[in-house]
Amino acid sequence: MAYVDNTMIIRRDLLARMAELFNDGKLVEGLDRIPLEMAPRRKVNSDRCCIFKERVIIKEKLIPLLGFDLKEYTDELKTLASYAEEALERKNPINKILTVVDEACTSCVKNSYIVTNLCKGCVAHPCMMNCPKESISWNANGQAQIDPKTCINCGICMNVCPYHSIIFMPVPCENACPVDAISKDEYGIEQIDEDKCIDCGKCITACPFGSIMENSQIVDVMKSIKSENEETIAIVAPAIIGQFKTKTENVIGSVKQLGFTDVIEVAKGANVTTENEADELLERLEAKAPFMTTSCCPAYVSAVEKHIPDLKKYVSHTKSPMYYAAEIARAKYPNAKIVFIGPCIAKRREGMNDPNVDYVMTFEELSALFNGWKVEMESSIQLDKSIFNHGRAYAATGGVAQSVLEVKPYVNIKPVIVNGLDKKKIKMLKAFGKNGKTSGNFVEVMACEGGCIAGPSSNYDAKTGSKLYEKNLSEIISAE
Q1: What is the pLDDT of residues 246-262, one digit of tens each?
Q2: How much is the pLDDT for 2?
Q3: Residues 371, 16 contacting (CB under 8 angstroms)
Q4: Is the pLDDT of residue 410 over 70?
Q5: pLDDT at residue 1 above 60?
Q6: Residue 191 has pLDDT above 90, yes or no
Q7: Burial of residue 81 (number of CB atoms within 10 Å: 0-12, 13-18, 19+)
Q8: Residues 179, 185, 190, 193: what is their CA dihedral angle, to the nearest 10 degrees?
Q9: What's the gap between Cα 88 and its chain centre?
Q10: Which tens digit of pLDDT belongs to each residue from 339-354?
């Protein structure tokens, strides 16, 4: 996750306002007023060109938060109240994960190389002389200029400029995507290629305009919680202990206070994953396999399936902690709605493919519920004593390897930790698959740097989340 910025604050504000309106029974009649309240007529220092564009963008951001894909937003006169009515009536959420807010995605240039005022208009003209497409000419001030229509972003001009006056200015979302799944269309709007996308969420945190949004299931979750006819079970990811500046038992208690019938820690499922992962690793090593990789990160598993087929045979067949926790919850509450709560966008995809998971909610959305429903986080609940703390260790990078080492210390494990996925790490993993060699025999891969505690929908950056995680985990251990 990125450090806190204004786009993140706006998204969280929108979620909290929606949650408050729902709780007050005013979602339909109150939703259309949100753009007017957030962009009032006399607003000072508007972030956009005018308050009217700001209002349109706020409206378009609310549509995916209500659980609708903006690609189907063809009637600009359709009110938010109408969308809210449809959200309240629908039986199942849509199966699309990400959407792009067109009106907000307008400020990134197509070409990535820019001539700055440092250009001296030198006689050598190395940038122009070496440009393979003759895209560089001279303006009235005698400085170089690049024609974006013919520039192919090769970077030769930047490399040959003696004054370093040409800089690389990336398109943030494209630069952040580890698998090149996002690019501009003919209108300059970013489009996500679902055949390539691994749902890692890096584009969301990278975009400085907040143009990329999740299609949320928060309305579906709130409906389920408030329903008198069904039970709703929360299964919370181990990363929960690095998300709030309060004791873990208070966080779990506050989740229960929202109206969930029961709250089950996914760390309980992680205990099962650890046992199965350790046994599978031992079997593979005995069968002379060169190595095995983890399988608990759905973004990584998706990356292998879509981009690194040579690595697939090395990926563990063991299911994720969410899978086993949902099985536990389903066995105990066979007719309930089961809601996974975590920091991960890719878990939405995994949840859609898991018959035991009905909805997926992020930590951002959980915080919005706490804020919108005025939960003070003072309610406490006793933590499950049957959970081994190596299950809670899954929240941080290195946690899976640490857990396997703890459970099966006699297995000759040589961990290789892949801390976050980017273009270089994808290239490295491709080499692992092609060559069948690594520096160890157990490769742990997390799509997010720092692990799940720094997922794209977590509440804090990796450094802050790690400190909270270590503090709260030590308190849990000392209390036992």
Answers
A1: 999 999 999 999 999 99
A2: 59
A3: yes
A4: yes
A5: no
A6: yes
A7: middle
A8: -40
A9: 25
A10: 999 999 999 999 999 9
Evaluate the CA torsion angle 366, 369, 372, 375 in order and state its sign.
negative
Question: What integer is the mean pLDDT of 451-474?
Answer: 92
3-state secondary structure the chain: CCCCCHHHHHHHHHHHHHHHHHHCCCHHHHHHHHHHHHCCCCCCCCCCCCHHHHHHHHHHHHHHHCCCCHHHCCCCCCCHHHHHHHHHHCCCCCCCCEEECHHHCCCCCCCCEEECCCCCCCCCCHHHHHCCCCCEEECCCCCEEECCCCCCCCCHHHHHCCCCCEEECCCHHHHHCCCCCEEECCCCCEEECCCCCCCCCHHHHHCCCCCEEECCCHHHHHHHHHCCCCCEEEEECHHHHHCCCCCHHHHHHHHHHCCCCEEEECHHHHHHHHHHHHHHHHHHHHCCCCCEECCCCHHHHHHHHHHCHHHHHHECCCCCHHHHHHHHHHHHCCCCEEEEEECCCHHHHHHHCCCCCCEEEEHHHHHHHHHHCCCCCCCCCCCCCCCCHHHHHHHCCCHHHHHHHHHCCCCCCCEEEEECCCHHHHHHHHHHHHHCCCCCCEEEEECCCCCHHHCCCCCCCHHHHHHHHHHHHHHHHHHC
Q: Quick one: residue 386, left, alpha or beta (phi over 0 = left, psi -120 to 50 = alpha)?
A: alpha
| 188 pLDDT tier (thresholds 50, 70, 90) | confident
- Cβ burial of 434 (10 Å; 0-12, 13-18, 19+) is exposed
CA dist 480 and 270 (Å) reads: 19
Average pLDDT along the chain? 93
> Residue 365, exposed/middle/buried by CB under 10 A (0-12, 13-18, 19+)?
buried
- Count of C-beta atoms within a 10 Å radius of residue 111: 16
- CA gap 54, 59 in Å, rounded: 9
Domains of the chain (ranges, CATH numbers):
113-169 (3.30.70.20), 220-479 (3.40.950.10)
Q: Minimal CA–CA distance to 449: which of 259, 322, 275, 297?
A: 297
pTM: 0.92
